[in-house]
Amino acid sequence: MTTETCPVSEASPKNEAQKTPWRSIRTIAFLGAGLVAWWLVYGQLLNLANWITFHVLQLNAGTHLGSAVLFFVYEVPKVLMLLLLVVFGVGIIRSFFTPERTRQLLAGKSEAAGNVLAALLGVVTPFCSCSAVPLFIGFVTTGVPLGVTFSFLISAPMVNEVALVLLFGLFGWRVAAIYASTGLLIAIVAGWTIGRLRMEKHVEQWVYATQGGSSSVQEENIDWAARLRLGMEAVREIVGKVWLFVMLGIAVGAGIHGYVPENFMASIMGKGAWWSVPLAVLIGVPMYSNAAGIIPVVQALLGKGAALGTVLAFMMSVIGLSLPETVILRKVLRPQLIAVFVGVVATGILIVGYVFNLLL
Questions:
Q1: How many domains does the chain have?
Q2: Fewer beta carbons within 10 angstroms: which end of the chain, N or C?
Q3: Position 85 in a domain
Q4: Considering the domain boundaries, does residue 120 fall inside one?
Q5: pTM listed for this prediction
Q6: Which ranges of the chain does DSSP label H, i.e. alpha helix?
């Protein structure tokens, strides 16, 4: 009696392993072709916007309406294309970082080093207002000092990677570097200050009673094809949520660009008015917007003569002191600590606004 050997199926693990490199190569080749197409289209956006505004819609170049429509038609695809690129890249970067890994990196560090590391990690790790409470609980219950935790919570929304790349694309490296460095400085100093005030007693007691997660989370290694897919998933998820905010922000910016007189913003948000910076912060805090939606407004304000320090303070107050995040944090923080958090961060933003209005 002979034993027949079954042929190896095409779906066997061996063949699947052989296919994996080819899948990665195809994925990377497709990505390269997509980047080339992105660059070619991006370079023609201004010509396309002029053609649509002045030939298809037949608007006059010197009118308020023509200027506003041109701004809108040009900026919508420009900002959305920049957003697609940066979200895809950030999605890949975030595949290397998880909240669990971030907790492990921060736990056990000295407070001074922890503040700096927490602020830097806040830029690249996944964070949104809805995740503020679980992140806070996870950090505190695994031994991360309160001040270090706040450096992370401040940096994560304030030094927004989407805002950073959009600012670089729209205004150049100088404005982007100012935004990133000042945001990180505020997060580090504010976290250190809160740590010095010893306000642990103003955290809700049930937080300390919560059992922290394991500090030895094992994470699965994934290949580059999977990381690229995670980048695409990030594009579908994030851009799918913010595109409407982007268009609304650009619509507001278009109105400012087309209809607001050239020197009007300079009179209320310029360097000469001492009250312009605190007013910008007061206006920005109750607003609810994300970085992608507020950047076109920032662009229009600067174009109409507003001072960089004042506009920077306005932007940071919108994305760094958002009212929804503050309300959510009330679940784990008592009012005294929330007031200190808002006061310290707002003071840092005010200082940034005045300093850059003075120096630039």
A1: 1
A2: N
A3: no
A4: yes
A5: 0.66
A6: 13-42, 45-51, 64-94, 99-106, 111-124, 132-141, 146-158, 161-171, 173-196, 205-209, 224-234, 240-259, 264-269, 276-284, 291-303, 308-320, 323-329, 335-359
Contact between residue 353 and residue 179 where contact means Cβ atoms under 8 Å apart: no
Q: How do residues 32-72 score in pLDDT, each as one tens digit?
A: 888 899 899 988 999 999 999 999 999 998 888 998 899 89
Q: How far apart are CA 120 and CA 96, in angstroms?
A: 14
CA distance 250 to 298: 10
16 found inside a domain: no
71 belongs to a structural domain: no
Residues 204, 330: Cα–Cα separation, whole Å: 9
Q: How far, in Å, CA of 316 to CA of 309, rounded?
A: 10
On whether the CB atoms of residues 326 and 286 are closer than 8 A, the answer is no
DSSP string, 186-218: HHHHHHHHHHHTT-GGGB-HHHHHSPPPPS---
Q: What is the mean pLDDT of the chain?
A: 78
**Mean pLDDT along residues 319-325:** 74
pLDDT in tens, 90-116: 777 767 766 666 667 776 666 778 888
Angle between helices 146-158 and 99-106 in degrees, nearest 10: 140
Q: Where does residue 292 rank: exposed (0-12), middle (13-18), buried (19+ CB within 10 A)?
A: buried
For residue 164, the model assigns a pLDDT of: 79
Q: Average pLDDT, stretch 245-257? A: 83
For residue 264, the enclosing domain spans 99-210+224-359
Cα torsion 306, 179, 325, 208: sign = negative
Give the DSSP letter of residue 305.
T
CB atoms within 10 A of CB 191: 31
What is the 8-class DSSP label of residue 248?
Answer: H
Specify whether the CB–CB gap between 199 and 336 falls below 8 A.
yes
**203 beta partners:** 333
